[in-house]
Amino acid sequence: MSKIAKVSSLFSLILLLSVVLVPLNSDVYADGETTTTKESAIESFEETKSTSENSEEPDTTSSDSKETGEGEKEKKSAMEEEGIKIQPLAAGEPFGPEHMRPFKRFIQLRVEYATGTPIEGLDIWMVAKETSSPAYGMPKHEFQLEYNNATQLYEGWYDYPYQFPRYYSQTYITLDLSGEIRGLEHGPTNITAPISPVTVYRKLRQSGVIHPSKDPDLLTGSVTYTLSNAGNLSLSASIPGQYSGAVGRNETRMEYVPSYGGEGLQIREEYTDVIPKYPVLYNLMSEYFVDEEGNDIPTPVSEGFIDGYIWGIDSPTATYKFGQTGRWGLVPHDVPMEYVSGGITYKYEGWYTGWVKPATLNTVHPIAVPVKKNEAFPIKVVYKSYVKADEQYFDENGNSLDGGSHDISQLAGLNSTFNGAPQNIIKDSNDDYWVYQGWLKDSEIPGTDTLRVGKPSESMTKDTVFKYIYKKATPNRSLTLTPDVSVVASGDQVTWTAKVKNTSSDPINLDDTDMRLDSVPDYVANSTIVDGVPQADSFWTGTSIPLIGPSGEITIQFKTQPTGAPNAIKETVISAQSVKLAQDIVKGQVRIKDEDSKPVPPGTDIGLENVPSKFSFEDVTVNNYSQVSLLKLSSYASHTISDGLFVRLFDDRAGMPGWRLTAKLDSFKQAAHPSRTLSTGVSMDFKPKLEQVNNPNTSTETVDPSPAGSLPTIQSTVHLTSNNTDVLVMNSPVGVGDGTWQARIPLNDVQLTLPANSGIAGETYESTLTWTLSDAP
Q1: How confident is the model at residue 73 (pLDDT cuts 50, 70, 90)?
Q2: Which UniProt keywords apply (predicted)?
């Protein structure tokens, strides 16, 4: 469809001309117990005792025993049936191992505090156990010592009730006697207390002779009792070696030497003629390092801590300080608030006493616990386990972003889920923006390995490096400038609206733009408003505009007051400047109003811009003959009288396809009574001249009245009759006519011809002149 511009105007005999254009826990723990009580220790012992006593004795009878004859076999059988009974020795019968057993002995033991005060109420047992090498499977025997208030000693009779088997070699059976203090959960380690007992050790080298009296070959020595930590507090005696010397007193002995001579059966006994004393600590406090679930964790050994270590308190009541009390030979330390072991960081949570973790930890630090009599218990310090999460920022080529200033190293709970939170947009120290692309981890290489989408959500089982990859963003903006009017009377104000928009393809801010008034000679002082907020005039001399978010814009308004000759162009130029973007410059213009010319809103690439606003003719007298009326010069400005009226059009289309300008005159109607018209024989004539406009609508606009070259064709005379018929004014064939052109109409070349007897005296008549521009020749 052709694009058509229409203009109509009024005249008196007034001709009115107008134009018409057509074309977006913490964790909970179960209450489980793991305790060692006095009763459980005894149960364990009774089970062992029962197993030992019910086990069969090994058959150690050698071929030599067969020489004793049938009677001896019967005697042995009877012995086995009797079990632990002692077989009587008949007159004249040789003495054999089946007759051997230790004599009873009375045991006394003193246990006291370091202050020398005796300790009563302990559960002390004596245990006789074979320690021969090789062992011969003798049953274990135990008995309890009772506390004697009168003597303040633990006392009891030792009577090993089992017979010894027969052996024929140079080996012998050894029974060791040891004491156990049961019912204590823990005991100190590697503490020894020497005493001075008399040890009896007998050897008989005379074959077949029994010597019930003292023998000068007895050896004496000393015994060391050791308090050891093997689940129970125990006192054990050992012989350090063989000694010669005087015979002790009140000793007992048994021995057997085989008939062929040499080393025979020997029984070692030990007892003391001095009651042993052993100083013990009152309370034994054990220290443990555990995680939130109660599992053992490595201790901070660099500070001298040992997991499960037992410290003693040697007064009836005291305050126990973890890492402070009883650290013999070690530097006291408070438990650390944080330490690292095996690549895992442990951070202090609190502590509790006993074996079961309570719902709420005690968080007091340093740890101090009041203790009372017989209140030995463990103290467990709870640490939360962490591993390291390193968040590092890189560009797409693997270079550390902004010198690593954005990198973060933090701790994450062991086996917890780490949710990385890389920023979507980063602004670096150079004011450049970077946009998040994805992530890698550990040994994966930026620029080589495929990026993981989204953000990390990883189970932390070890130290992990998270690598966040960013792409440099490209900022962009647009700048527009629009006046509120395109034509303004000289001296009137114009309101201009500038819009600065963030058109960056990345979602970044625009925050470094300064505005300038590059050419605004008619600027009205103190008229600038930014997003509704008045600004000082210094705004235009280097003040940065407010930050513009992604896809956002700001609006700047200001005023000018142009003055000048009619049809003069007044140009306003502003610019936006910034460090990161090239300078943007925009221009706007307004035309000083010409009362004799009517501006037409221009089209996109072809259109009318101006037409005469009116053709006003001189008044005429009604006559019976035809007559001519010329334009009434007093109705026009002086510049119009000298320059004439004009019709302006433009064609900016590529290829120059040509155009066509026509005009048509409607019938004249009485202004007061539009239904009353003049004859259609009224006609209008004018003689247009072709002009070319250079630099149109700018301050450097010029008009060439004598253009040269390939030009549009213009009619020398245009004759219009009032019958509304289109008449060609000028046209441009294909290949000609691009640019801006004017049909200049001198005032003295315009006339209106009226038929005889036209009109009624005293009335005004109006008609419409329509200009039409078609986009084809």
Answers
A1: very low
A2: Signal
pLDDT band at 168 (very low <50, low <70, confident <90, very high): very low
The alpha carbon of 479 is separated from its chain's Cα centroid by a whole number of angstroms, namely 39
Number of other CB atoms surrounding residue 532 within 10 Å: 7
Q: Residue 578 contacts by C-beta under 8 Å, 6 or more apart in sequence?
A: 512, 513, 514
Identify any residues that bridge with 584 across adjacent strands, giving them in sequence order: 576
Q: Is residue 678 part of a domain?
A: yes
Q: 443 and 527: one domain?
A: no
Yes or no: say if 715 and 617 are a contact pair by the CB < 8 Å rule.
Answer: no
The pairs formed by 18-21 with CB atoms below 8 angstroms and a separation of 24 or more are 18/768, 18/770, 19/598, 19/600, 19/608, 19/611, 19/770, 19/771, 20/770, 21/600, 21/601, 21/603, 21/607, 21/608
Bridge partners of 575, per DSSP, are: 516, 585
Q: Are both 467 and 481 inside the same structural domain?
A: no
Helices (H) and strands (E) in the chain, counts: 3, 53
The residue type at 471: K
Q: Domain of residue 365: give its range.
A: 287-473
Residue at 598 is within a domain: no
Q: What type of residue sits at position 300?
A: P
Shared domain check, 485 and 372: no
Cα–Cα distance for residue pair 622/246, rounded to 1 Å? 179
The per-residue pLDDT for range 263-309, each reduced to its tens digit, is 444 444 444 444 444 444 446 678 899 998 889 999 988 777 888 77
565 with 664, same domain? no
Q: Are 289 and 307 in contact (CB under 8 A)?
A: yes
- 251 and 192 co-located in one domain: yes
Residue with tokens 């000018």: 560
The reply to whether 191 and 56 lie within a common domain is yes
Q: Which of 473, 505, 527 is the last residue of a domain?
A: 473
Using the structure block, give the residue that is written with the tokens 């300064």: 514
**Residues 481 and 466 both lie in one domain:** no
Instruction: List 569's β-bridge partners, or say none.
Output: 591
Kind plus residue range of the DSSP H or E element containing 54: helix 38-54
Residue 69 pLDDT more than 90? no
DSSP state, residue 443: T
Cis peptide bond N-terminal to 366, omega within 30: yes
The verdict on 160 and 107 lying in the same domain is: yes
CA distance 630 to 720: 15
In a domain, 24, yes or no: no
Nearest CA to 6 out of 665, 711, 744 is that of 665
Q: Are 487 and 613 a contacting pair, CB within 8 Å? A: no
Q: How many CA atoms lie within 13 A of 670 on its CB side?
A: 12
Domain assignment of residue 178, yes or no: yes
Distance CA 634, CA 619 (A): 12
Q: What CATH number has the domain bearing residue 573?
A: 2.60.40.10
Q: Write the DSSP string, 133-154.
A: SS---PPPEEEEEEEETTTTEE
Residues near 132 by Cβ (< 8 Å), separated by ≥ 6? 138, 171, 172, 173, 174
Chain centroid offset of residue 436 CA: 14
Q: Which of 592, 623, 654 is the last residue of a domain?
A: 592
**Beta sheet of 514-519, edge-to-edge order:** 487-488, 584-592, 569-577, 514-519, 541-544
**CA distance linking residue 125 with residue 141, whole number of Å:** 10
Amino acid at 407: D
What does the alpha-carbon distance between residue 377 and residue 184 come to, in Å, rounded to a whole number?
A: 10
What gap in Å lies between CA 285 and CA 473, rounded to an integer?
64
* Total domains present in the chain: 4
